[in-house]
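Support case: nicotinamide-adenine-dinucleotide complex. Customer-provided input:
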Amino acid sequence: MQRFQDKTVIVTGGGGGIGGATSRRFGQDGARVAVFDMNLEAAEAVAAQIRADGGQAQAFRCDITDRPGVDAAVAAVVERFGPVDVLVNNAGWDVFKPFTKTEPAQWDKLIAINLTGALHMHHAVLPGMAARKAGRIVNIASDAARVGSSGEAVYAACKGGLVSFSKTIAREHARHGITVNVVCPGPTDTALFAEYKEGAGNPEKLMEAFTRSIPLGRIGQPNDLPGAILFFASDDAAFVTGQVLSVSGG
Ligand code: NAD
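Agent response - structure generated as follows:
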């Protein structure tokens, strides 16, 4: 029996680097994977890879900032695959600029995607999980939430908000058999990180600085993240909730 056999899993931002690696790992471990992304083409490519590997997956276009769209996509998952057992809130976006050079409209967009979007997803799945007295939620924050990160002030604030939101939802919903935990990636080699490097102006120097500052001596790869995410989503973590784990090379 595979670890996530007969489990329905939603991964938001599932068409991206970390979300794609996570979706594929769930697929290999037997889950029915709902790959959510505002970029349907990217989500479809991931779902197609999972099916080609013998797994079950379907792509869903879902912009997590659009509440009616979130509700419709979650309802479509329940109809296609059955009730949601696991939600991984992974979709994210960033602007890489000193705070005083950012505009309020950018803060609104950052908050809408990185914080409010995750709230919509929780709001859409929690009642069903509570009714079934079972559910696992894994939220992808960032080491920027723990230690700060120059050029990412509002993003870091959103991720910090997501951490404290997760701890609170973990307390509120523990009696319903739902666990909520957080994984904080460090710098990880994805499209988002490529934009960060560009924003920094001198990508080579930045990489050298990261490599020097990370005890394990390299930035992360998308495949470094699914181990921790699937642990929190699994029965092995049945007695673990409200916790935050950095996967960042130390
Ligand atoms: P990525 O750009 O490869 O993937 C992000 C995905 O989210 C994309 O497919 C994008 O289309 C999707 N997305 C963006 N806005 C969306 C929306 N409104 N609705 C639905 N989908 C949306 O980036 P990644 O590095 O894989 O990021 C995954 C998560 O990891 C994010 O939450 C990010 O903040 C976090 N993170 C990444 C790093 C890093 O260095 N890469 C570090 C810390 C935290």
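The mean pLDDT is 96.

Case will auto-close in a few days if no follow-up is received.
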